[in-house]
Amino acid sequence: MGDFGERIAEYGAWRGELAAAVRRYRRWLDEAGLSDAALESRLEGLVERLRDDRISIAFVAEFSRGKSELINAIFFAGYGQRVLPSSAGRTTMCPTELLHDPARPPSIRLLPIESRLRETSLAELRARSDDWHEIPLRPDDADSVVTAFASVRDTRRVPAEQAAALGLHRPDDEDSPVQPDAEGLVEIPRWRHAIVNIPDPLLEMGLVVIDTPGLNAIGNEPELTLNLIPGADAVLFVLAADAGVTRSDVAVWRDHVEPAHRRGRYVVLNKIDGLWDGLRDEAEVDAEIAAQAGSAAAILGLPESSVFPVSAQKGLVAKIQRDPQLLRRSRLPGLERALAHELVPQRQALVRERIGRDFDEVCAVVSSTLAARRRNLVEQLFELNGLRGKNRSVVEHMAARIRGEREEFERSLRQLQALRTVFARHSGSIYDGISVESLRRHVRGARELMRSSNFSAGLREGMASLLAGVRADFEAAARVVEEVSTLMNAMYRSFNAEHGLALGVPMPFTMRRYTDELDRIEALHRRQFGALTLVTTEKWALMRRFFESVAARVKEVYDLANRDVDGWLRAVIVPIEGQVREHQQQLRRRIESVERVREASESLDERIAEIEFLRTRTEQQIEIDTGRAAVVRALLDAALAPAAGAPVRDAIAA
Question: Measured between alpha carbons, how far is 620 from 45 in angstroms, rounded to an integer?
Fold first, then answer.
């Protein structure tokens, strides 16, 4: 499987063990009577996130850089032949995602290129099965897999006007490689997007491979620039040693890779076997490869350690023929080690931080509940032991004092009820502000602005209107979040001071991550369309596709914000409600204990023994809870650390 495959397998096994430990912890809470709907939902959410986690790698390059061959060499050499089409000229005609979805049969789903003419984003089309052409796959038959993959490179010949409307031909660009033939026809891709669902071992472990076409396709498919490339854990930017760094390479790098990724950037200088001419010794060849890598690093503004010279073709041949000497000369193992020992731990650290934070919040609620229960039982034991040898008047006095405490606490509950009312009103304000209906209003208004103008100013105004409306929603929500935080801080302090609860401080929350995403979208829009003065048919179509993709992406941001806000609101109200409920129960038990002693319905010693049993059981629950939580935390801390001798690159840390 190789270094990278082994590390992916380790990561998949780690996720599985961690999810199992969280499930065991959830079952323990339920068995111990410590769970509730909010805790159950949060723990189930952690398991789902671990199950659905993916490591995605985007391969980005101009055509004829050997990108598809590199994917074959790294991931699919086990098939014993090329899986992705790879030959001279352009082979990747549309963006292609390779993944494994066990809920769907193995297949290649292909979206017709004509879908670009519709006002529907690619994100929305993903869920519409009827819009896709599906080719079944037989994973156990390598030849059938290769044949099915060949369909991804299908093309059609259409009139130049239709190609321009699809954004695949620029009539004003005489230097474009896409030009009409003698009949006025232009060759275009048959498909807009491909999703390959195949049960390959690496893909089953959660790997997603994204194969992108060249500059023209990247610039004309907003889904790539908005979601797929920025959302990938790593980008492999592929150059060709025989071509050097061309102007179009630099354009792809500066417009689509550099702004989207500060970490996880790998520059691959492919086709170094073209320098093996047999007329120079190994040292001379190595010197020229080093010079090429240094030149590429200087042009792209990276340290030389960020550039990996390889021969994907020789690496693939070496793996298929089991030729270790040729594999070493291809230098492919160096790139695979970098992916294994940098990318996978980087992804694990991100998952560990997110899962660990949420799990700690759940544990804090459980711990505070158990601590409050233990404290109240100890207080009951102290009270009951204090009654030994006391006369009836002392017992009655204690009963009256506890009833007074309960009455005082009941008065405080009216304050809690008022809090719930205000809390519900503020929560409703947040949900209303970042509702899908609010987004629909912004989108409708922006579309009307764009439809009313064929000029660049009107198009820009439409996009600006959408982003301004969305930003106003999130800023208003942020103000209410701040009010809720202030309210809950005051309430936590009040109940801590007045009733001896141990609530700590409410979980903090910020809307910053969502406004940061809006900043990124806005910057991308300025780069692509900010200086536009003349709107051609092609540009008009591209801006409409970009707008629809932005609208779809912003809807994802709204959905994410709603889920996060919902989780946060529950996280800040559940601890106080849980401890208040526990405190109520303990006050009731204290009164019952003293009343029984006063009425001589049972002996004092029997009641003390009962409370002592409950205290002992609570101590055991605390110990078990600590142990079960420690198992989860130990797995969270079990980092897949880089192995000794693994490459360390300055650019990844930059």
Answer: 28
Please check whether residue 134 lies inside any domain of the structure: no
Euclidean distance between CA atoms 210 and 21, whole angstroms: 32
* Total domain count, the chain: 1
Question: CB within 8 A of 399, min separation 6: which ones?
Answer: 591, 594, 595, 598
Q: Does residue 18 fall inside a structural domain?
A: no
CA dist 577 and 37 (Å) reads: 13
Residue 258 forms part of a structural domain: no
Contact 480, 520 (CB under 8 A): no
Place of tokens 């002392």: 394
pLDDT, tens digit (0-9, with 9 covering 90-100), for 98-146: 999 988 999 999 999 998 888 778 888 888 888 999 999 888 887 878 8
CA gap 39, 477 in Å, rounded = 25
Task: Report d(CA 289, CA 563) in Å as an integer.
Answer: 50
Cβ proximity of 152 and 194 under 8 Å: yes
Give domain status of residue 468, yes or no: yes
Is the CB of residue 316 less than 8 Å from the CB of residue 82? yes
pLDDT digits (tens, 9 = 90+) for 147-161: 888 888 888 899 988
Q: Which domain holds residue 496?
A: 386-601
Helices marked H in 32-111: 37-52, 67-75
Q: 564 — phi, psi (to 5°)?
A: -65, -45
For residue 157, what are the β-bridge partners? 187
DSSP string for 294-313: HHHHHHHT--GGGEEE--HH
CB-based burial label for 623 (10 Å; 0-12, 13-18, 19+): exposed
Give yes or no for a contact between 384 and 452, defined as CB atoms under 8 angstroms apart. no
Q: In what order do the strands lie in the sheet with 307-309?
A: 133-136, 107-112, 191-197, 96-99, 207-211, 55-60, 234-240, 265-270, 307-309
pTM: 0.77
- Which residues, in sequence order, are CB contacts of 287 under 8 Å at separation 6+? none
> How many CB atoms within 10 Å of residue 626?
12
DSSP class of 279? S
